[in-house]
Each structure stands twice: as structure tokens, then as C-alpha cells.
Design goal:
Distance between the termini: 38 Å
Helix content: 10-25%
Number of strands: 4
Largest sheet: 2 strands, antiparallel
Order of helices and strands: EEHEEH
Number of domains: 1
Strand content: 15-25%
Strand order of the largest sheet: 1-2
Radius of gyration: 15 Å
Length: 96
């Protein structure tokens, strides 16, 4: 993995990227102090865009990768309640 901060959440269908959300949040996904939501394994796509093919390994399974250990840092505790309120406020604003 070249840059873990560029990883996106997404969905897969028929060995292709079906949808992409925004990039992961390093505050949670790359925070050693918030282990319940770490980056974990990622499937590899040929390009980071909808309809891109996923890379398959020699057994025809999705090729996967992980971030280097030093990609995660101690960023301190995360106030999940406050983050949820921020997220809900953004959703309300988008919906008008």
C-alpha cells in the first residue's frame, strides 16, 4: 500500500468497484489508540474509480494488502459521540 490515507470505503460487485465513498478518516482508521476501527485488509483495484476491476491473486481470489505498521500512530482517544453528531449534522445539511 503506497498511501493509506488515500484508501476509500467502497462496495464490490462482480469483481469490480461498484461504488466509492470518501477517503478513510485517519483519526479512526490509522489511530493505534482506536483499535476498534483500524484500516485492516484492503482489496486492490486497478484504479480508484467506479467500474475499475479488482486485482485477483493466483487462486482467483481478491488480492489484498495492508498498510505498513508505521502508517498507524498514537493519535489519542476518539470521542465517538461527538463524531457521530458531526456526521449527522453533515447529513442533515446535505439533505437540506
Amino acid at each position: 500500500m503506497i498511501d493509506p490515507s488515500l484508501v476509500h470505503h467502497g462496495t464490490v460487485r462482480a469483481s469490480h468497484v461498484a461504488s466509492l465513498a470518501g477517503p478513510i478518516d485517519p483519526t479512526t482508521h490509522l489511530n493505534r489508540d482506536f483499535a476498534g476501527h483500524d484500516l485492516g485488509e484492503c482489496v486492490i483495484a486497478v484504479r480508484l474509480e467506479v467500474d475499475a476491476e479488482l486485482v485477483l491473486d493466483e487462486n482467483g481470489q481478491f488480492a489484498r494488502c495492508r498498510a505498513r505498521h508505521d502508517a498507524s500512530q498514537r493519535l489519542g482517544p476518539v470521542d465517538e459521540g461527538a463524531r457521530r453528531q458531526e456526521w449527522l449534522a453533515v447529513l442533515r445539511e446535505r439533505r437540506g
